[in-house]
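Components:
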Amino acid sequence: METEKKGEVLDSMSFDPKFKFEVIKTTEGETSLGCFQCGMCTASCPVSEDLNVKPHQVIKQVLLGMRDRVLRCKTIWACSFCLVCNIRCPQGVKPANVMVALKHIAAKEVEVPEGLKTVGKSILEEGLSRKVTEFQNRRRASLGLPQIPKIDKGLRRLLKETGFEESMGGGL
Amino acid sequence: MKYTYYMGCQVTTHLPNYDLSTRKVAEKLGITLIDLIEAGCCGCVIRALNPDTWLAMSARVITMAEKTKLDLVTLCSGCYTTLTEAQTILNEKPQLKEKINNILSHEGMTYDGGLKVKHILPVLYFDYGYEKIKSAITRRLDGLRVAVHYGCHLHRTPAYEKYDDPEAPQILDKLVEATGAESIYWPLKLWCCGGMTLDENLSFKLGGIKIRDAKEAGAHCIVTACPFCQIQFDFHQPVIYRRIGEKYDLPVLAFSQLLGLAMGIREDQLGLQLNCIPVDSVIHALKSKS
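Structure:
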């Protein structure tokens, strides 16, 4: 899936310069334009050494309009949202939040990783991000802790109205 | 003191030990916790999938908590970031707030946004008071070397800045040291545990690096203030062993379990038997002294 090659000449005619505007219109991507490529996010990132496309490169690709590459790149899903880049960015870009915005577009258009599909399914069925088992409730009871209630109508309706199932690309 | 008590998914389903020990510590200190277990998820993990769902779920939790007119206290750093960031976004963007309120109106709810969302750690340290906690310690843990782990979503969340330095947080270290234990220096202390990344290999690699670092620094145990980190270090420790072949056998305690031990609460009432890596070495050190 990774596309970076050393010495590769990019065809700028294939870029979509409007992509950055699409990103800044999202709930969490509005700070992207401030990036001046200092690389602080990459230097601070605990996962960057394992990534072919580093966090600051992802932001540059957003600004250049390399839409397809960005949405298919492993980096956006590897981000653990640990926020270290956010507190250190001298431009207030909040790279971790930009990754969330990109994940959102990628989930709609490319794919949702398996782990996140499992979580989404639990949300739809239980109202919690983890599956609830009989064992857990028995264990809680034996400790004198309150039981985990079933998902209620209100939450079901909320999920329907915000189009949650559709946002998983119909991938369930 | 009274709070609305919101656990979040991870604690509710996987960490009854963190839940139980927090309740027992609160009881001991005279803090009343009113359950909000029916509120469901805050939307943390699906934030990337659908921002509207996330904001509506967070707003719903906050609105349900508003009924009691008490500050909301959460055990989970993930919930803390998610709820406080949702509050910031909804308070800054009236159009978005109106949209979310339309969704909530079916349940007769209106998101107001004035509620204070707090994490249990600063609640104990500031609201209850460090000195009072210190005076509640009856069984000192002298000689115990603790690798303190805050969890990124706690100390690097913008809302937390008023409590502590995001690059050099102190309050959990101070609470641990109040018990007589030593909070040791370990180089990777403020690194991410890897629990939130969706890339499994990366996740276990990061988890392994951190546990090894704590062990090499001479820790007897890791103490966490975040359920994701607790699950990663404790439950995933055997998985990390299978994946990368390193066995650490390093006990991992939620900070409420450590405080509870130092306050003389019985071990079974702190759910220590439910920790995945046996905590015998910690308890043994305690017993050999008393």
